[in-house]
Design goal:
Elements: H1 2-35, H2 39-43, H3 57-64, H4 70-101, H5 107-116, H6 122-135, H7 142-146, H8 153-164, H9 168-176, H10 181-189, H11 194-210, H12 213-218, H13 227-232, H14 242-274
Helix pairs in contact: 1-14, 3-14, 4-8, 4-11, 8-11, 9-10, 11-14
């Protein structure tokens, strides 16, 4: 009797998980469905779950559209997201390790000052940041899109909290071998902190890839557009190109799925260890 109840419980959990997975995948299916449909199929009052004909030419039309340099926008977003992620991981992890391990009597004051910046709304610093970037001549450049976003206080906080719980025995062994703080960080700490690096890196990558307002203001030239800015250009007051918008959304989501699939194991481990919610 108990075995039967266990099997029934497992079956019900499996059915529930399948139902939730299908519910979660519906928006992605709609993106693909509308991206491979004609404008008539998308806006037709007699909506069907499957389009009458798959328009694979929509993909070619997206990249051949002279008014929206989508391939260039993908490249810009990739460069910005990768550079922002690498720079943030380097700077934030160094700051977090220094605040957690290097003796300094004002370390807590510096840490609380960094945390205080999280209380400042982004709208307050937006205009001063734009004026500074403009005065440096970084409008419509990758430097203007990347440099102001390289040190989020959240990443520094996560690294500092993680390094506070890092095993001191490993660092003590490194110091016995004659390693200083710098070499201990590179040779001991970083290889053993891959989960938190993966978790923070993924969050930063997603944020950089999905960023819209700052790239919209700074990237005033088409050659400096990002994916999100390019997506917005398909919906204007004059025309709405729905099929291109949907297929472009599908293409822009694919890199995020690849990043998550590649780092899924480390992301989960990093969330468990660092307490990210």
């Amino acid at each position: 009797m108990d075995d039967a109840l266990v099997r029934v419980g497992r079956a019900l959990r499996l059915v529930l998980l399948i139902a939730l997975a299908l519910l979660f995948l519906i928006p992605f299916y709609l993106l693909v469905r509308n991206g491979l449909s004609s404008e008539q199929d998308i806006t037709s009052p007699q909506w069907t779950f499957f389009p009458g004909e798959l328009k694979w030419g929509n993909v070619r039309e997206l990249f051949d559209d002279p008014s929206v340099p989508f391939a260039r926008s993908l490249l810009n977003s990739a460069l910005i997201a990768v550079a922002t992620t690498v720079g943030t991981l380097l700077l934030a992890s160094l700051a977090g390790y220094g605040l957690a391990r290097i003796p300094y009597r004002h370390a807590n004051k510096v840490f609380y000052g960094i945390l205080g910046t999280l209380l400042v709304p982004a709208a307050v610093t937006f205009v001063p940041s734009f004026v500074l970037v403009s005065s440096l001549g970084w409008i419509s450049t990758l430097r203007g899109l990347i440099v102001p976003t390289l040190f989020p206080a959240f990443a520094c906080f996560v690294f500092r909290q993680y390094f506070l719980g890092f095993p001191r025995e490993l660092e003590d062994a490194a110091q016995v071998d004659g390693l200083g703080y710098w070499r201990t960080y590179w040779l001991v700490v970083v290889p053993n902190a891959r989960p938190v690096f993966a978790a923070v890196g993924t969050i930063v990558f997603l944020g950089a890839w999905n960023s819209f307002l700052w790239p919209l203001v700074i990237g005033q030239d088409q050659n400096s557009w990002t994916v999100q800015v390019a997506l917005s250009s398909f919906t204007t007051s004059q025309v709405v190109r729905l099929h291109e918008l949907f297929v472009a959304a599908v293409v822009s989501v694919l890199p995020l799925l690849l990043v998550f699939l590649c780092f899924q194991r480390w992301i989960v481990a990093g969330v468990e260890r660092s307490g990210i919610e």
